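We include the pair:
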Amino acid sequence: MAEENETTEPVESAGADSIGDSAGAESPAPEAAAEPEPQLSPKERKARAKATKAAKASVKAPLTPAEKHDARLAERKKKAVARRGERAQAREKAKAEAHQPSVTPPREHVAGTQKTRQGVVVSDKAAKTITVRIDVARRHRRYSKVVRTSQTLHAHDEQSEAHIGDTVVVRECRPMSRTKRWRLVEVVERAK
């Protein structure tokens, strides 16, 4: 009898342990206690995630050519319906905009400001035309050296008032000939 009690006791205690293990009671799981979770580098974590994803994808059965064709046709029909809807909306929008009056009123003509230049007459040989040299002296942006440049232009002089050496003011105007786009405004200083 004592032997039977001894044999039954260990069996009961083993059953109690197995119940305790399944409920997560006092004793930890034998696998977790034996080996701790290793720390993985980000590269290794990414590789493992990729491998598990590939394993899940490979579980799917590959599609047959007929199934692929049907799926492609269904996708194309869905896109065609979406396109038709977008085009209908665009047509409605265009109709609505066509019936509305233009928001911006027509532009009024505004006279622009004409350029004026002061220079020295270098030639008055042509009839009703003078050639004016405009000297410009400006400081170079980077090197700060004064750079002098000149430019000649032809100006209309109706009464032939200006002569060689006069300092004159000319103003921009409509083209009067192939090279003449300026007209004489006044003679500032006569030549000596």
Observations:
- The chain has a mean pLDDT of 84.
- Residues 116-189 form a domain with the OB fold (Dihydrolipoamide Acetyltransferase, E2P) fold (CATH 2.40.50.140).
- The first strand starts at residue 116 and ends at 123.
- The first helix runs from residue 2 to 23.
